Amino acid sequence: MKVLYRFNRFIEKWMALVTPACLAFGVLFPQIAKHGVPFVPYVFAFMTFTGALKSRFRDVANVFKSPGPLLMVMALLHLIIPGIVCGVGNLVFPDNSNLVTGMVLEFAVPTAVSALMWVMIYNGNLAISLALVVVDTVLAPVIIPVTLRIFVGSRVHIDMTDMICRLIFMVALPAIFAMTLNQLTGDRVKESWPSRLAPFSKLALIFVVASNSSGVAPYVRHMNQERVEVAVFMFLLAAGGYASGLVIGRLFRQDRETQISMMYGAGMRNISTGAVIATTSFPGEVLFPVLIATLFQQMLAALYGKMISSSADGTLVEQDGHKD
Questions:
Q1: Which of 4, 46, 102, 125 could serve as 289's disulfide partner, Cβ 3.0–4.6 Å?
Q2: How many other C-beta atoms can be found within 10 angstroms of the C-beta atom of residue 41?
C-alpha cells in the first residue's frame, strides 16, 4: 500500500503534467487507447463514487443555510459562462457547429472533484466546495442536457434520453451511493475509504483521459488554423472562468476562504464528464475543444493559486476590507 500512496502523492503533485501526458498518449497511440473506450463509463462511475466519499448529506444541507456563494457559482457555471462561450463560439466559428458544441459542452459540465484538492491546498472554504461538487454532480443529468438544448440545441441533434441515462449512471447514482454509505456507517467510510481508493481513482483518471483522447487523434494530428484558434480561445475562456469566480466573490464581499472556493468552483470543470459525453453522443470533432482544455485546467489552477498565495498586499483577495 505504501507504493500506492507514494504513487497517489506523485500524481497529485504533478497533476498539471499528468493529464496532458495522458492526452498525448491517446493521440499518439489511438489504436491502443481506443480499446478502453467501452469501459470508460464504468471507470468514470468509480471515479465519481471515490470523489463523493468525502461528502455527507448534512454538509450539503448546512451550506444551504447561507446559499449565496453556492448559487452564484452555479449561475456562473451553467448560465453566464456557457452563454458567453456560446456567443464567442458562434461569432468566431459560425460555420462549424461541432466546434461550438464542444466549446459549450466543456463549460456546461459540473465543477471538477479535483477542485477540492486545490481548495484544501490554498485553505479555501471546503464546506462550500464539497456542497458545490455534490449538488452540481447530482444535478448534472438535468443541467447538462438543458444547457446544451438552450445554447446549441437548434444546431445539433442531441439524444437527450441517452445522455440523461448515461449521466445518471456515471455521475448521480455513484455520488448518492457514496453519501448514503457515509450516512449508514456514521462517517466511518468517509474516514477510511478515500485515502485507500485515491490511488485507484488516479489510475482511473489516467485510463479515462487516455482512452477518450483516441477519438480526437485525427483532429490533433491534422491541426489547422481553425483548431489552433479553438485552442487559444479555450485557454482564454478557461482562464476567464477562474477570474469570474474570484471577481464575483470580491464584488459580493465574501471572505477570503469563500473567494478561493468560488474561484476554483467556477474555473475547474469535470473534463472527463464532457469527454465521455462527447465521445458517446457527438461526432469526433466535438471532442476536440473538450480535451484541448485538459492542457490548461490544472496549469491555470496552479497559476491562480500562486497568485493568491503571493498577494500579501491583499490586492487580489481581501477579507472584510482588510489586507491579508
A1: 102
A2: 16
For 140, the grid coordinates are 448534472
The residue with cell 479555450 is 234
Residue 269's DSSP bridge partners are 111
Q: Give pLDDT, residue 152.
A: 85
Length of the chain, in residues = 324
pLDDT tens profile 174-186: 888 988 998 889 8
Rg of the chain on CA atoms, in Å: 19
Task: Tell me which H or E stretch contains 303.
Answer: helix 294-309
94 by Cβ neighbours in 10 Å (0-12 / 13-18 / 19+) ranks as exposed
**Are 129 and 264 in contact, with CB atoms under 8 Å apart?**
yes
* Cα 84 to Cα 266: distance, rounded to the nearest angstrom: 14
Model confidence at 44: pLDDT above 60: yes
Q: Using an 8 Å Cβ cutoff, are 70 and 266 in contact?
A: no
Place of cell 471538477: 112
Can you give the three-state secondary structure of 219-284, one letter per residue? HHHCCCHHHHHHHHHHHHHHHHHHHHHHHHHHHCCCCHHHHHHHHHHHHCECHHHHHHHHHHHCCH
When mean pLDDT is compared over 83-87, 286-290, 295-299, the highest value belongs to: 83-87
CA distance linking residue 40 with residue 47, whole number of Å? 10
Quick one: cell of 12?
Answer: 497529485
Which pTM value belongs to this model?
0.73
Q: Distance (Å, rounded) from C-alpha 207 to C-alpha 150?
A: 32
| DSSP sequence for 175-188 | HHHHHHHHHHTTTH
